[in-house]
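[Meeting: bench + compute handoff]

Bench side (C.D.) handed over the final construct sequence. Compute side (W.E.) agreed to return the predicted structure before the next meeting so the bench team could plan truncations. Sequence as handed over:
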Amino acid sequence: MTVDALTDVAGLRVGHATRTGDGWLTGTTVVLAPEGGAVAAVDVRGGGPGTKETDALDPRNVVQRVDAVVLTGGSAYGLDAASGVMAWLEERGRGVPVGADPAHVVPVVPAACVFDLGRGGDFRARPDAATGRAAVEAAAASALGARVPEGSVGAGTGAVAGGLRGGVGTASTVLDRGVTVAALVVVNSVGSVTDPATGALYGELLQGRVEYPRPRVHEAARRRLDEAAARNAPPPLNTTLAVVATDADLGKAQAQKLAGTAHDGIARAVRPVHLLHDGDTVFALATGARPLGGGHPLELNDVLAAGADLVTRAIVRAVRAAEPFSGPGGVWPSYTELYGERPTPGG
């Protein structure tokens, strides 16, 4: 049975650590690979990224597999969460062997951050190594194939999407030949996720499944958003992060291609995207449990297409699952609060 989540890729687990209240509105999300790790790659398109260990994922470099990927709030400060994940992995002997002693390992933990500083009211309330440890422990404690909490959790806790509350979303599919592809996103975009003329989600427009909100509902929503924007400080930095995963047997170069094409999924659901104050970053993971196909290079195409589609769908799910927030750091309505669970046509 599938749960329409990143955890449908067998062996992957997801854990969140969420901090709210007393000035906090942030968190960390960890994707934990199975024992032995997963082939990993990355593609960074935003002009203001905050990342760690991404150079190690270059296909030209020595590291072949990683044991975890960290997505975190807290801007560059929050990258410290990866230290807690590294410590947890080292304690279990997981990482790149660097000596004769099996305990001598260096875990390679790629990480990327979103900007959410001060959104809970306290600029200094941001994830640290303890937050990262809590998230990886939550991942390790979860069952294989478990559902993944979405919305205002983990790295998406303080996320904002073009004036709306952002968050975490995930989705998966099984291709006709049995290969599983899945995505998990953290939507924290300076660009909008909605069509300004109608209020429809861009991601749903491109999926051909949209039911347009009533004009009266959209007008009321625009007023609410304008009022909230007048109260909030302009966001100086924003980012959409994603992990796209598959059980196909991919090499690092193929995984890097998957990470690159998955950015198309962001561009379909967020406008504008990849700006100088975005840090848009996509990681790709491949567990290698299933052969890609008959050996022809074009066998990768349906995996690439699915990855982009799933990123779009995961962004829609993140925005729809997000909860409204009002506090000392700002006011961010949710899409569902403004437009309802199931917008209806007409007006």
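W.E. noted at the follow-up: The radius of gyration is 19 Å. C.D. will use this when planning the next construct.
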